[in-house]
Amino acid sequence: MKGYKVAIVGATGLVGQEFIKILEERSFPMLSICPLASDRSAGKKLFINHREVEVKETVSESFEGIDIALFSAGAETSRHFSPIAAQAGATVIDNSSAFRGHSDVPLIVPEVNPEDIKWHKGIIANPNCSTIQMVVALYPLHKVNLIKRIVVGTYQAVSGTGSAAIGELTTQAKQVLEGQSTIPHVYPHQIAFNVLPEIDVFLDNGYTKEEWKLVEETRKIMHADDIAISATCVRVPVFTGHSEAIHIEFSRPMSPDEARRILAQAPGVKLLDDPTISLYPQPWSAAGCDEVFVGRIRRDASHSNGLTMWVVSDNLRKGAALNAVQIAEEMTKRGWIHPGG
Ligand SMILES: NC(=O)c1ccc[n+]([C@@H]2O[C@H](COP(=O)([O-])OP(=O)(O)OC[C@H]3O[C@@H](n4cnc5c(N)ncnc54)[C@H](OP(=O)(O)O)[C@@H]3O)[C@@H](O)[C@H]2O)c1
Q1: Rounded to the nearest whole angstrom, what is the distance from the C-alpha of residue 73 to the centroid of ligand 1?
Q2: Fewest CB within a 10 Å sphere: which of 31, 111, 152, 295?
């Protein structure tokens, strides 16, 4: 049987589990799959394609003979093991922030810049979840009418922080409903029944690192260094699905109908836009889906070249695992990667 030898680093995590589901669902051509994690999970059993597979500790030798290594185990693990995996001959697709800004590492969203995959040198970076859904929705519009400025506010689900955050929201929600006090561990404050305008660390310019990722990654993926972008990233008590209120300034006016026509044809996008029946994207219904959902498209009343929209997507799927698998699929489809080398 022809297929690829795939390793998943972080296979026991939220994104890792989604990797496995997506590879199965899309029948990715795999000769073997090797789930890797830290020593804490070594020996655990996972069911993959109806077979029990043992989780192994990630070590330098883990990548011998591997064709594709999908990483989702944090930036530190990626920084250490991705170059080792690439050196061993694997093509690394990395979900962490470790290499996204590196000039010799392509940052890929297959609907936007698949051609950039060609210049990889062993490591390909998967963008941040909030960036992916934004560029999937905006790039088709940008191609028709250049975007000059974006102002975006995000409403990001706790699953974006990993499995510990899901536990924290669940526990705190129960505690609040039972009248008990909460003690935050994952976040600096209570997340249940609250919103936190802090995702990742604060930078000297007053923005958070998450907000700055949206700026730099969007410019790199869209090859548009001069787009002005300002973001406010907010954690909300939602389990899965990031939402974004996006305000766009184009070079010339674009009507909501024109934007709807373009987005109706855009790859990876699904329009849900009918205010008369309260039809608009919601994280609750986007969770588990592959699309980037767009709605509430309207003229920006404050600018003649402006449009405003609401964009929602599953942060674990299109925001992480699905996008990475689509990168691998793009490479196999175009003959840019071959089993065994
Ligand atoms: N969640 C999202 O929406 C999202 C979106 C885009 C990107 N990402 C990125 O994906 C990565 C993982 O996120 P997650 O949400 O899946 O986190 P998670 O649920 O906390 O899982 C973390 C995974 O990393 C593994 N790990 C931790 N330290 C390790 C080490 N030293 N060596 C090998 N494996 C190690 C863990 O293994 P053990 O079971 O052994 O602890 C676990 O499998 C992060 O880099 C994150 O930034 C996440």
Answers
A1: 3
A2: 31
pLDDT digits (tens, 9 = 90+) for 33-73: 999 999 999 999 999 999 999 999 999 999 999 999 999 99
* 147-156, strands of its sheet edge to edge: 228-235, 147-156, 242-250, 306-313, 292-299, 269-271
User: What tens digit of pLDDT does each residue of 67-121 get?
Assistant: 999 999 999 999 999 999 999 999 999 999 999 999 999 999 999 999 999 999 9
Mean pLDDT of 267-295: 98
- Considering the domain architecture, whether residues 311 and 326 belong to the same structural domain is answered as no
> Are 109 and 136 contained in the same domain?
no
> Tokens 């022809």 appear where?
2
Range(s) of the domain holding residue 173: 131-315
Instruction: Look up the CATH number of the domain holding residue 51.
Output: 3.40.50.720
Catalytic annotation on 34? no
DSSP assigned state of 252: S
Residue 242: active-site member? yes
Query: Which residues does 265 contact at the CB level (< 8 Å), separation at least 6?
Result: 140
The pTM score is 0.97
| Residue 243 and residue 327 in one domain | no
Determine whether the shortest distance from the Cβ of 82 to ligand 1 is under 6 A. Answer: no
Q: How many domains does the chain have?
A: 2
